[in-house]
Structures are given as C-alpha cells and as structure tokens.
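Forgive a beginner's question, but might I ask you for the amino acids of a protein and the tokens describing how it folds?
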Amino acid sequence: MPALRVLGIDPGLGTTGYGVVELVAGAPLIREAGTVRTRRGDALPERLRTLYEGISEVIRDCHPEVIALEDLYTEYQFPRTALLMAHARGAICLAAAHQAIRVVSFAPSEVKSAVVGFGRASKEQVQGTVQRVLGLSQPPHPNDVADALALALTGCYREGSPLQARER
C-alpha cells in the first residue's frame, strides 16, 4: 500500500495548528508540525489573508493527499468563538480548494475516540497518546499542534484503512 500523507489542521483565527503525518506501511510518521499565527490587532480580512497564505505554503511544501480539519462546533456560551473559527475554516478550505486538496472534517469527539479510544478524553490524554504513537520525546506543544497531529492521525486511520480505500 502506498504512503498516505495527511495534513491535520486545528483552525483558529489567532493560532492555527498544523501537523503532517504520513502513514507508511501502516505506521504513522510525523513529517512536519507548527502554527500559523495572525496578529490580534489586524483587521479580519488581513488575518484571514495571513492564515490563507500560511496554510497555502504548508500545503505547497508538504504535498498532502488530504486535509483533516476540525469540524465546526460551538459551546452555547461562546458563539463568537464559533463565528471566528468558521472564518478560519473558510480560509483553510479556500487554500485547499486552490491546490485541489480534498478536505475531510472530524468532530473533536471523533478525533478523541480515534486517537485515545474515548470521545471525552482530556487534552492531556490526547497529547500523551499523540506523543506515544508518533514516538516523540515530549508531548507536542502548544495544544494547537497536539490537536492538529491528532487530526492528522485520525485522517490516517480513517483514510488509510483498506475499507476506506475500497470506498473511494
């Protein structure tokens, strides 16, 4: 089975985490990880341009087959956060579309379930599992990167399974 390269993205308007994981002979290997940051004082269009350009560069440099993006969700007490996240997701989806990269979305509980085995796992449990699975010397930091790597792993597990390959 050929290698599968997945770019996981934890979208945020201020900080967007990304992680590239490649599934080689059934084993996940980390290829790249980091953040794209925007300046808080900039106007929304400028922040979205910065995010779009940063993610476009990651896509060009890393050549993923698919992007695993955190699905839009909200907690009722923080509706503004959901709106800002929706703007960030839009910029990311546009960058993917311009480079013809397929995007799959995963809910946070689905990522936790795929990576940890429990849909209500804590941030620390996700970080620890990502560290162990990818053979890192310490947990990935910041949380945005840990979440992006967990998304990439979920994408590898979902997209790299023989069942998924037959369904495409």
About this structure: The first strand starts at residue 4 and ends at 10. The domain at 4-167 is CATH 3.30.420.10 (Nucleotidyltransferase; domain 5). Residues 6 and 66 are 5 Å apart (CA to CA). Helices lie at 44-62, 79-98, 108-115, 123-134, 143-159, 162-167.
